[in-house]
Design brief:
The protein has about 450 residues and is an alpha+beta fold. The protein folds into three domains: about 220 residues, Rossmann fold (3-Layer(aba) Sandwich); about 70 residues, Uridine Diphospho-n-acetylenolpyruvylglucosamine Reductase, domain 3; about 120 residues, Phenylalanyl-trna Synthetase, Chain B, domain 3 (Phenylalanyl-tRNA Synthetase, Chain B, domain 3, 3-Layer(bba) Sandwich). It is about 40% helix and about 20% strand. The strands form five sheets. Strands 3-2-1-4-6-5 form a six-stranded mixed sheet, with helices on both faces. The protein has a five-stranded antiparallel sheet with strand order 7-8-11-10-9. Strands 12-16-19-20-21 form a five-stranded antiparallel sheet, with no helix packed on it. It is elongated.
C-alpha cells in the first residue's frame, strides 16, 4: 500500500519528498490509515483535527483519539473547535456546507502559518465515484466529470487510488485503530444517501463499479483537458476585454459551433447559468438594448456586440435605464429622469439638462462612454456629425473627452451628456410627454 501511495504521488505530482504536510485527521478509518501511511513513508507531517461540536461526547472522543495518534507518531497535533450549528444558522447554510467552510478555512490558515506544502485529506476512490454521481445528478457539466482532483491548489488527496475495501483490509492487516463516526450512518447528508442507496444497487449489477468508474474518471480528466484546449481557442476569438467590460462580436458568436456549449462556457465566469446562456443566444434575434442579468453582470445586446458589464457601478461603463426608472447613481455623477407634460417651460437652456420627446425613445436606454465612430445629429442640424469632430469644434481637451457619456436609444445617440441632445429627439409641437434628464455631480 505504501508503494502504491508513493507511485500515485509521483505520477500525479502531488507533492515532493521533503515537503512538510498538514494531515487533516478526523480519527476515522480513512484519515487514520492515511496518517499511518504518510508518516511511515517518511514524510514530515503535522496533524490537524476539527471538533465541530455536533456529536457531543463522540466529538470529544474523536479529539482525544487524534491527540493519541500525535503521541504515537511523535507528530505535532493542532486542534480547533467550532460552533458549527451557530455558524450555519448565521450564514444560512446547511450543517455540511458550514462544516466544510470552517474546516478548509482553518486548515489553510494553519498550513500557511506552519510553512507546510499542502493540506492532505483522506478522500479515496469511492468518495470520488460518489462525487461523480452527485455531480451528474446536479448537472455540473464537463467539469463535474473529473470528480475530486488529486491536487487542487494547496489541497492534496493522495489516497484516491485506493478503494474503501482496500483501506479497511490494510487497517485490519496492520492492526490500526480508528474511531467510527455515527453520522456516517444517517442519510440526511447527500453523500451518505448516494453511499447507502445509489452505489449498492449498481454493485449488485456491476460488482467492480467503483474501480471501473474510478478508471473512467481518469479518462474524463484527460478528455476535459482536450475540452478546455478547444474552449481556449474559442475564448481567444470571441472574448475581448476593455477595462471592466467584455465584448463578444455577434457575427462570430453566431457562427460558433456547438453554440449552446460554447455560450455556456464563455459566459459561466460571469455567473451565467446554462438556461441564461440559451437566453443570450436568443438575443441574437433581438433589438439592440435587450439584455440578460446574472447575479453579478448584465449581458447587453448592442449593435455589433454582446457587452458584458458588471452590475457594480464602480466598475462599469455601460448602464441600462428601464422605463420608469427615476435615478442612476454613478461614482461622481448622478442622472435623474422625470416625466412631464409638454409646455413652454419644458425646455431648459442648461446643458446639464436634456428635455427629450419621450415618444421617440425606445427602452431600455443605455448610458455609456462615447467611442470612436459614434455620431449624432446635433440639435438644430439635419446632417450627422461624428462625435470626434464635434469635440474638436467644442475645443475639448483629451481629459475632457475621456469623461464624456452618451445616452443611447436603440441604435441612436439621444444625448451627448452635458453638451447637446440629438435633433431627432427634440421637443416639437406634436410632443405630448417630455422626459427631463438632469446630470449632476455626486459624492464618490
Amino acid at each position: 500500500m505504501i508503494e502504491r501511495l508513493q507511485e500515485f504521488i509521483r505520477k500525479e505530482k502531488i507533492f515532493n519528498p521533503g515537503d512538510g504536510l498538514l494531515l487533516a485527521v478526523s480519527g476515522g478509518l480513512d484519515s487514520s490509515v492515511l496518517c499511518y501511511l504518510l508518516i511511515n513513508a517518511g514524510w514530515k507531517a503535522e496533524i490537524a483535527h476539527c471538533n465541530f461540536q455536533l456529536r457531543g461526547e463522540e466529538s470529544r472522543r474523536d479529539e482525544a483519539f487524534v491527540r493519541s495518534l500525535g503521541k504515537k507518531y511523535q507528530a505535532p497535533v493542532h486542534v480547533t473547535a467550532f460552533d458549527t450549528a451557530a455558524y450555519a444558522e448565521q450564514h444560512k447554510l446547511s450543517t455540511q456546507v458550514a462544516a466544510r467552510e470552517l474546516r478548509y478555512a482553518w486548515l489553510e490558515q494553519l498550513r500557511a502559518e506552519r510553512g507546510l506544502a499542502a493540506v492532505v485529506t483522506a478522500h479515496h476512490m469511492q468518495d470520488n465515484v460518489e462525487t461523480l454521481w452527485m455531480n451528474l445528478s446536479k448537472g455540473t457539466g464537463m467539469a463535474g466529470l473529473h470528480g475530486i482532483l488529486p491536487l487542487q491548489g494547496r489541497i492534496a488527496r493522495p489516497l484516491l487510488f485506493a478503494t474503501r475495501e482496500e483501506i479497511a483490509a490494510y487497517a485490519a492487516a496492520e492492526g490500526l485503530d480508528y474511531v467510527e463516526d455515527s453520522s456516517n450512518i444517517t442519510d440526511k447528508y447527500t453523500r451518505n444517501y448516494f453511499r447507502h442507496h445509489i452505489l449498492p444497487p449498481l454493485r449488485d449489477i456491476y460488482p467492480d463499479v467503483v474501480k471501473q468508474t474510478g478508471t473512467s474518471i481518469a479518462r474524463f480528466r484527460e478528455a476535459e483537458e482536450l475540452y478546455q484546449q478547444a474552449l481556449d481557442v474559442h475564448k481567444k476569438k470571441l472574448l475581448v476585454q476593455k477595462g471592466q467590460e467584455f465584448f463578444i462580436p455577434l457575427t462570430r458568436f453566431s457562427q460558433a459551433k456547438p453554440l449552446a456549449t460554447i455560450a455556456y462556457e464563455l459566459l459561466k465566469p460571469f455567473n451565467c447559468s446554462a438556461g441564461q446562456a440559451l437566453q443570450v443566444i436568443a438575443l441574437l434575434d433581438a433589438e439592440p438594448g435587450k439584455y440578460i442579468s446574472t447575479g453579478t453582470h448584465r449581458i447587453v445586446r448592442d449593435r455589433k456586440w454582446f457587452i458584458i458589464t458588471p452590475l457594480n457601478t464602480a466598475e462599469a461603463s455601460y448602464f441600462i435605464i428601464e422605463e420608469g426608472q427615476d435615478l442612476l447613481q454613478l461614482p461622481g455623477l448622478q442622472f435623474s429622469f422625470r416625466e412631464a407634460a409638454n409646455s413652454a417651460h419644458a425646455i431648459s437652456a442648461d446643458p446639464l439638462v436634456a428635455c427629450i420627446d419621450k415618444a421617440a425613445l425606445q427602452y431600455p436606454l443605455m448610458l455609456r462612454k462615447w467611442k470612436q465612430g459614434d455620431y449624432f445629429y446635433p440639435l438644430g442640424m439635419v446632417r450627422k456629425k461624428k462625435l470626434s469632430r464635434f469635440f474638436i469644434d467644442q475645443k475639448l481637451s483629451l481629459p475632457q473627452k475621456e469623461k464624456v457619456w452618451v445616452l443611447e436609444s436603440g441604435k441612436k445617440i439621444v444625448w451627448v451628456a452635458g453638451m447637446r441632445i440629438d435633433n431627432r429627439f427634440r421637443i416639437t409641437e406634436k410632443t405630448r410627454k417630455v422626459l427631463r434628464i438632469t446630470m449632476t455631480e455626486a459624492a464618490v
